[in-house]
């Protein structure tokens, strides 16, 4: 997925430089297959678009390749930035994304590429987009740029250990070394090409809540799985839903997963550890 993403990024400017904005264009409804660009404030897009695509047969599969980046939640403007290229709003003229938007998305989302061994391509140099004082899309406000981080966010990290053999005493030690532990039921499904989607099913059970917020934890875990896709693939061997105990910590507003246990019915040690944890005192 990451290689596909880098390829799409590297092609972007070549396409936009060669695209004659004076070509005849038409307005069409954003197709339902373009999930990424639904509910973005408008329902019609221009073709050809700013990626040089001239038909839906080109746009739909190409835009789907970027869905993974949006699902990581790397930046709240990532979807707006990408849709301004793939599904530009149907106005009298094309509206490009501003430099400030490109910079903000790049700075937040480039680490996702780095997590897969790639860097933000030079061809997507933000200096090539219009300056904020020009007519461009959704320039970031100063107020937004200075909003402090309130909620912990998942980050790219080395893969956590997946324990296969353990005792309840060792699990309690791990609990003491971390500040959250949650029991979740995860499923993975194959989507477009080799892309995988990970979902948290059913209600999350908190063993140790720590700094995680109950109403945000599902999203945090799913984002962690998307960002650390290579780790998620190692964790989830089967396509059928399985239960996991995920243990980690919050450091500098970053969610780090440090230990993962496969929770099976025969794992009496896990059950015993979670029961004892209620009254356990860490040394």
UniProtKB/TrEMBL annotation:
Show the SMART domains listed in the entry.
Answer: FRI
What are its GO cellular component terms? extracellular space
User: What Gene3D superfamilies is this protein classified in?
Assistant: Frizzled cysteine-rich domain
Alphabetized, the UniProt keywords read: Developmental protein, Differentiation, Disulfide bond, Secreted, Signal, Wnt signaling pathway
The organism's place on the tree of life at top rank: Eukaryota
Q: Would the keyword Signal turn up in this protein's UniProt record? A: yes
Q: What is its main location?
A: secreted
Q: Which GO terms describe its molecular function?
A: Wnt-protein binding
Q: Write out the GO biological process terms.
A: canonical Wnt signaling pathway; cell differentiation; non-canonical Wnt signaling pathway
Recorded hits in Pfam families, A to Z, give: Fz
Query: Start and end of every NTR domain?
Result: 156-282
Where's the FZ domain? 22-139
Q: Which first-to-last residue range defines the signal peptide?
A: 1-18
Q: List the disulfide bonds.
A: 37-83, 102-126
Where found in the cell? Answer: Secreted
Homology family: Belongs to the secreted frizzled-related protein (sFRP) family.
Q: What protein is this chain from?
A: Secreted frizzled-related protein 2
Record the organism.
Sphenodon punctatus (Tuatara)
Q: Which taxonomic lineage does the organism of this UniProt entry have?
A: Eukaryota, Metazoa, Chordata, Craniata, Vertebrata
């Amino acid at each position: 997925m990451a290689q596909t993403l880098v390829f799409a990024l590297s092609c972007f400017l070549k396409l936009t430089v060669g695209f004659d904005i004076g070509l005849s264009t038409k307005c069409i409804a954003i197709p339902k297959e373009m999930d990424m660009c639904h509910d973005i404030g408008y329902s019609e897009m221009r073709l050809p678009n700013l990626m040089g695509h001239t038909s839906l047969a080109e746009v739909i599969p190409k835009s789907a390749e970027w869905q993974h980046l949006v699902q990581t939640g790397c930046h709240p403007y990532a979807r707006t930035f990408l849709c301004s290229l793939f599904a530009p709003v149907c106005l009298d003229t094309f509206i490009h994304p501003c430099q400030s938007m490109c910079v903000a998305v790049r700075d937040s989302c480039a680490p996702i590429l780095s997590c897969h061994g790639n860097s933000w391509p030079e061809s997507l140099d933000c200096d090539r987009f219009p300056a904020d004082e020009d007519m461009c899309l959704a320039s970031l406000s100063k107020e937004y740029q200075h909003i402090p981080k309130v909620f912990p966010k998942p980050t790219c990290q080395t893969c956590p250990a997946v324990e296969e053999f353990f005792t309840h005493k060792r699990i309690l030690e791990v609990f003491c070394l971390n500040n959250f532990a949650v029991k979740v039921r995860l499923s993975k499904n194959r989507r477009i090409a080799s892309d995988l989607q990970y979902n948290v099913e059913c209600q999350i059970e908190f063993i140790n809540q720590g700094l995680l917020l109950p109403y945000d934890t599902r999203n945090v875990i799913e984002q962690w799985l998307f960002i650390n896709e290579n780790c998620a693939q190692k964790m989830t061997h089967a396509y059928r839903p399985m239960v996991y105990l995920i243990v980690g910590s919050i450091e500098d507003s970053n969610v780090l997963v440090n230990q993962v246990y496969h929770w099976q019915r025969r794992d009496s040690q896990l059950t015993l550890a979670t029961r004892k944890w209620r009254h356990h005192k860490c040394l």
